[in-house]
C-alpha cells in the first residue's frame, strides 16, 4: 500500500485560473494543480532552489523535483498541442496570512493584496 500523500503548503491560490491558446485550439484541457503552480512560481519566478522550495511547501526535495518535472511536461504538452491550461485543485494548505519568515520576501503573495 503506498504511503499517503503529504499535504503541500502554498502561499495563496493564484489570481489567474488558466490560459487559452490563440490560433490552434485543440479543445483539450491540461489541469495544473495548485501545488504544481506553486512549484513553478517558487522555482522559476522567485528563483528559489529546490531545497528552499521544499521547505516552503513543507515537502521533501525529491517530491519537489517530481512535481516540477510533471508540471513542465504538462505545460509543454499544452503549448505544443494547443491545449487550454486550467489551474485548480490538489491537496494543499493555503497560507492565510504572511508568515514571520516571509517578512523580507519580495515575492510573498500576501504583499500583493
TrEMBL record:
Q: InterPro entries in the record, alphabetically?
A: RNA_pol_sigma_r3/r4-like (IPR013324), UPF0251 (IPR002852)
Keyword DNA-binding (UniProt): yes
User: What's a Pfam family this protein contains?
Assistant: DUF134
Q: Which UniProt keywords apply?
A: DNA-binding
MF terms in GO: DNA binding
Decide whether keyword DNA-binding is in the record: yes
Q: Which domain of life is it from?
A: Bacteria
Q: Which family does it belong to?
A: Belongs to the UPF0251 family.
- This one is known as UPF0251 protein A8806_10217
- Higher taxonomy: Bacteria, Bacillati, Bacillota, Clostridia, Lachnospirales
Amino acid at each position: 500500500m503506498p504511503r499517503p500523500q503529504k499535504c503541500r503548503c502554498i502561499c495563496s491560490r493564484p489570481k489567474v485560473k488558466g490560459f487559452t491558446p490563440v490560433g490552434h485550439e485543440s479543445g483539450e484541457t491540461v489541469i495544473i494543480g495548485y501545488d504544481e503552480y506553486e512549484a513553478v512560481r517558487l522555482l522559476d519566478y522567485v528563483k528559489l532552489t529546490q531545497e528552499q522550495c521544499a521547505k516552503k511547501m513543507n515537502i521533501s526535495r525529491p517530491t519537489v523535483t517530481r512535481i516540477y518535472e510533471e508540471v513542465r511536461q504538462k505545460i509543454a504538452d499544452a503549448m505544443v498541442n494547443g491545449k487550454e491550461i486550467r489551474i485548480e485543485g490538489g491537496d494543499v494548505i493555503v497560507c492565510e496570512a504572511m508568515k514571520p519568515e516571509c517578512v523580507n520576501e519580495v515575492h510573498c503573495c500576501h504583499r500583493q493584496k
